[in-house]
Write a structure and sequence with these properties.
Layout: H1 2-21, E1 24-37, H2 42-45, E2 50-56, E3 59-65, E4 69-75, E5 80-86, E6 92-94, E7 100-102, E8 108-113, E9 128-130, E10 135-142, E11 146-149, E12 158-161, E13 168-170, E14 185-194, E15 197-213
Antiparallel strand pairs: 1-13, 1-15, 2-3, 3-4, 4-5, 5-10, 6-9, 6-14, 7-8, 7-14, 8-10, 11-12, 14-15
């Protein structure tokens, strides 16, 4: 009996040691709106443009403006949150199916927005019209980052979302690996129809720094 107890405690100690050695740490990043590639002849048609940084309860947000739109971005761990205001005298239209996302490796994918079920993420998404003077707040989530885990005896399973940037590292690499993503770029190409003319806006985001770990 004593031998069996020692064996059990020994196995438990090995298990705890293994779990401890495999523990991963999560890091977060500061991501800013670096530039906006706007439609052609922008100085003639779209007027002066600018990007400003806003601080909201300790969170950095980035606002782009021209004569037709005002859009404020916040990049979360898994998604791009934005508020788009229609400054024009006409309704503007967002065709969600035409929006594309480019990750830090240069891979292009589609996005889904709030209200779309995960099971419908690869289906066509109806366009949204924004009346003049109105605003739309929404999120963009890369569909390639959404996946389903089957239930097991250890997990309930369900839908999951990957982070936009690698966020989990082992103790041995936590101080070095995340730094290689600093300076990397992500982008959102968002076509916006104004007076039935499609205007392609490309928002380029830069990974500024590693904020911390937990």
């Amino acid at each position: 009996m004593i031998y069996k107890m020692k064996k059990i405690f020994g196995l438990l100690a090995v298990t705890l040691l293994t779990l401890s050695s495999c523990k991963s740490y999560e890091v977060s990043y500061a991501v800013s709106l670096e530039s906006v590639e706007s439609p052609a002849n922008i100085k003639q048609q779209f007027g002066d443009t600018k990007i400003v940084t806003l601080e909201d309860a300790g969170i950095s947000k980035y606002r782009y403006t021209d004569n037709y739109i005002e859009i404020t971005w916040f990049v979360d761990r898994k998604e791009f949150a934005f508020t788009l205001k229609n400054k024009s005298n006409h309704a503007i239209r967002i065709n969600w199916d035409d929006i594309s996302y480019v990750d830090i490796s240069g891979n292009v994918g589609r996005v889904m927005h709030s209200g779309v079920k995960y099971t419908d993420r690869n289906n066509s998404q109806p366009a949204t019209s924004i009346p003049k003077g109105a605003s739309l707040s929404d999120i963009l989530l890369p569909t390639d980052n959404v996946f389903f885990i089957s239930p097991t005896r250890y997990s309930t399973g369900g839908w999951r979302e990957k982070s936009l940037l690698p966020s989990f590292f082992e103790k041995e690499t936590i101080d070095s690996l995340p730094q290689k993503y600093v300076g990397q770029k992500m982008s959102i190409m968002m076509p916006i129809s104004i007076e039935n003319v499609q205007n392609d806006y490309t928002f380029v985001f830069n990974v500024d720094k590693v904020l911390g770990r937990k």
